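Audit log entry. Action: structure prediction of a protein-small molecule complex. Ligand: 3-hydroxy-3-methylglutaryl-coenzyme A. The ligand was supplied as SMILES and no pocket hint was given, so placement is left entirely to the predictor. Protonation state taken as written. Sequence taken verbatim from the request; no trimming, no tag removal. Recorded inputs:
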Amino acid sequence: MSAQDLSNLSATSLSATSDSVSLFEMGPRDGLQNEAAVPTQAKVALIEALANAGVKRIEAGSFVSPKWVPQMADSGEVLRQIRRQAGVVYSALTPNVKGLELALDAKASEVAIFGAASQSFSQRNINCSIEESIERFIPLMDMAKAANIPVRGYVSCVLGCPYEGEIAASEVARVSEILYKMGCYEISLGDTIGVGTPLKARKMLQAVMERVPVEKLALHFHDTYGQALANITACLDLGVRSFDASVAGLGGCPYAKGASGNLASEDLVYMLHGLGLKTGIDLEKLALAGFGISKQLNRLNGSKVANAILQGAKA
Ligand SMILES: CC(C)(COP(=O)([O-])OP(=O)([O-])OC[C@H]1O[C@@H](n2cnc3c(N)ncnc32)[C@H](O)[C@@H]1OP(=O)([O-])[O-])[C@@H](O)C(=O)NCCC(=O)NCCSC(=O)C[C@@](C)(O)CC(=O)[O-]
């Protein structure tokens, strides 16, 4: 992306595409899957606070093996306890049919399967190769279709792998197309370890867009190297309007050591509103939700915007 391209990225250049952006909140799942012993009640309170802030898509938990990720073992309870708001999607990760059965039982509004563009990451994360994961997803997709429940698809390691390093954009595009053709309504492209930079992110997205329509793509950037907002800026004018982010910048992946949380939702919302894009989210209420969970976890809030709002409130 040239400097000229960047300077052309303004509300005007964005007006050719929709001015509404959908934020998929990852905090309760991606955010908390690395945190030990978060009480179920605190997860429920976080999800309810996010919905009260106007967030319409929330990943509430994950139905994976409790031996692999014990932090998510109470996802059924979480989904059962939340007071649901009309029009809000409460989603859950499901790696296999067993996970889907548990998610259906807990009345998840939709589920997500998760694959990878890296063989080594696939093996470490879900204990099978990319091809085996696709085989595993087939009966899950059939069952979800029969239950009339939408399925989202993740592709991890789209800009680098903690075990293999560089990942070819063509491989990201190949796996994305498979998940899309299997029936996933949206494919979320995950920079699992947050190593991507704007030019690479844009090239990767362009490669995937040759095989999956852009309106079916979402971007999921971890912010390990502080590049997530820049990456999103570099990709916005290609037409993507769905982004994953995590309140207070919570999180990381248990099978990607050293990876930090997702881009903070507050930082994303602030930037999108500044570009004249609509999210339907009340930024102050979102920041309060982030401070609530940060206090519970006894950690600093990872959102610069939330901290700035707090400072402003004190001044
Ligand atoms: C996929 C498996 C289950 C395979 O694990 P496995 O050991 O190969 O599975 P298995 O079928 O042999 O089963 C082993 C045991 O797990 C149980 N089991 C089996 N499935 C389930 C289930 N769904 N729910 C509950 N229990 C389950 C099963 O019943 C059995 O129990 P046992 O007989 O030993 O008592 C395992 O590898 C796993 O759970 N992995 C999940 C890892 C994970 O959650 N990673 C983090 C999420 S991905 C992520 O963060 C990336 C993302 C999405 O955010 C995007 C990005 O940033 O890149």
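Audit: result stored. Residues 30, 33, 62-65, 67-69, 93, 95-96, 98-99, 102, 114, 125-127, 154, 156, 190, 192, 220, 222, 253-255 surround 3-hydroxy-3-methylglutaryl-coenzyme A (CB under 6 Å). Residues 3-314 form a domain with the TIM Barrel fold (CATH 3.20.20.70).
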